[in-house]
Specification:
Elements (H helix, E strand, L loop, with lengths): L17 H16 L3 E10 L10 H4 L6 H14 L9 E11 L5 E12 L15 E3 L11 H5 L11 H14 L4
Antiparallel strand pairs: 1-2, 2-3, 3-4
Length: about 180
């Protein structure tokens, strides 16, 4: 069940890392429900912008979740800094996951997907900054990939492509002892 379905208020994300914010949300839900609770925090980290938008990725899209506007803002800032080549436009997505138990036990993981930012954005799949992010080793953006391509688990047991799927793989290993 989601926090919304349970009528839980969303706690203020006061952490200075993705893991800290996932922890805040998971602990708040576990304490409020006396049940194990799962939370995530994720975002885009742009090297040439000193890590911005980072933990503020969703906030850059504003209350209306205008990620088109947020991508335009990032592009403007990259242009202002002269970041025009792929090497200067390095970025990565981060996904932090936390499971909190009512007895204060925590399981926390973080994963990332590296790539470059492209302009103009391409594709309409996914959400957020996906149309502007081209993962390393690929010619298409996350916005041009199907959910299966982006989040699917490789048949060889290797790492998934997306930061979120990689984080779930790490959480499965931490909680269930799944093979590495």
């Amino acid at each position: 069940m989601s926090a919304g379905e349970l009528g839980l208020a969303e706690p203020e994300e006061t952490g200075d890392t993705f893991v800290a914010n996932a922890r805040i949300k998971a602990i708040a839900a576990a304490k409020a429900t006396e049940l194990p609770a799962f939370a995530d925090d994720s975002g885009l980290v742009v090297d040439a912008l000193d890590g911005a938008p980072g933990i503020y990725s969703a906030r850059w899209a504003g209350p209306t979740k205008d990620f088109s506007g947020a991508m335009t803002r990032i592009e403007r800032l990259l242009q202002e800094r002269g970041a025009t080549t792929p090497e200067q436009r390095r970025a990565h997505f981060v996904s932090a996951l936390c499971v909190a138990w009512p007895d204060d036990h925590l399981e926390e993981v973080e994963a990332r997907a590296d790539g470059v930012l492209v302009w103009p954005p391409r594709g309409s799949a996914g959400f957020g900054y996906d149309p502007a992010f081209q993962p390393d080793g690929h010619t298409r953006t996350f916005g041009e990939m199907s959910a299966q391509e982006k989040h699917g688990l490789p048949k060889d047991g290797g790492l998934a492509l997306s930061h979120r799927a990689r984080a779930f793989q790490a959480l499965a290993r931490a909680c269930l002892g799944a093979p590495r």
